[in-house]
Structure formats: C-alpha cells, structure tokens
Design a protein that fits this description.
virion; dTDP-4-dehydrorhamnose 3,5-epimerase activity; capsid protein; RmlC-like_jellyroll; five-stranded antiparallel sheet
Length: 151
C-alpha cells in the first residue's frame, strides 16, 4: 500500500429497521480534521481521474454502487513514489479511504448503477485558488490500464 494511505473497513450494524455505520470518528487512524464534506454521484462506466492536492488531505466513502479506486504516489520523497494501488469499494464492501497530500486519485464506476461518493477534505474548496491539479486518466507517466478484466 502507498505510504500514508489508510483504509478503514466499515462495519454495518443491521436490525429490523435497516442498518447503521460509523464513517469518520475522532481517534481512528483514518480521521483528519474535516473542513468540507461534498457528495457526488457518477454514472456507470464513467472514469473520473486523476487529480491530486498540494495542501489538503482527502477521505473518500462510497455509500452506494461500486467503484475501482486508483491511487498513484507522486510525492518526490516518498518510499512508495511511482507506486499505483487499486482499491475496490462500494455498498457491499464499505471502506473509508484516507488519501494524503501528493497522492493522485481517481475512480471508475463498476456495475450498472451509479455510485454515491462522499469526500471529506481537510481544507475548504476555494474556487479562486483551487488546490486541485488534474492529470488525464490515460497519462503515460502513470500508465494505468482502466480496462475491465474478465477473470
């Protein structure tokens, strides 16, 4: 796993009324101060990649649907510089994913339903000076193959 990336397996507590999950909790290793929470829905088959931040950490939680999340370490002084990791997450395999500064990230929606993604950032979004740096999904320096693998 890329240095600094943290994953919390989310436990669902079910009863006759439905279920409950704890997502972000003070004291856990995936916790960071949150200054903004945003929510997005993305349609099946869509790839949203890549971007990274220089001033903020980000934590992702997919609450519905399923996605392939791809992380790539861009940090010059990191022992995992250049490493690419894949994390599968979604409503049937709930995870909270902490993404540190300097790690490029993106995702591909899997299956036939949209995903719902909450992302929590350690700094608020500033449209006049956004801390968001984009890299094309097919950038040769990352060289990630987004094709679905039939196994």
């Amino acid at each position: 796993m890329i240095k600094g990336v943290k994953i919390k397996k989310i436990t669902s507590y079910y009863d006759d009324r439905g279920f409950f999950v704890e997502v972000i909790k003070l004291g856990e290793e995936t916790f960071h101060p949150v200054q903004q929470t945003s929510y997005t829905e993305t349609y099946p088959g869509v790839i949203k990649a890549f971007h990274f931040h220089k001033k903020q950490d980000e934590t992702w939680f997919i609450c519905k649907g399923h996605a392939k999340i791809v992380l790539h370490d861009l940090r010059k002084d990191s022992p995992t510089k250049g490493q690419t990791d894949i994390i599968y997450s979604g409503e049937n395999d709930k995870k909270l994913i902490f993404i540190p500064i300097g790690v490029a990230h993106g995702y591909q929606v899997l299956g036939t339903t949209p995903i719902g993604l909450f992302y929590h950032t350690s700094k608020p979004y500033n449209p006049k000076n956004p801390d968001e740096y984009r890299i094309p999904f097919d950038d040769l320096s990352i060289n990630f193959n987004w094709d679905i693998k039939n196994r």
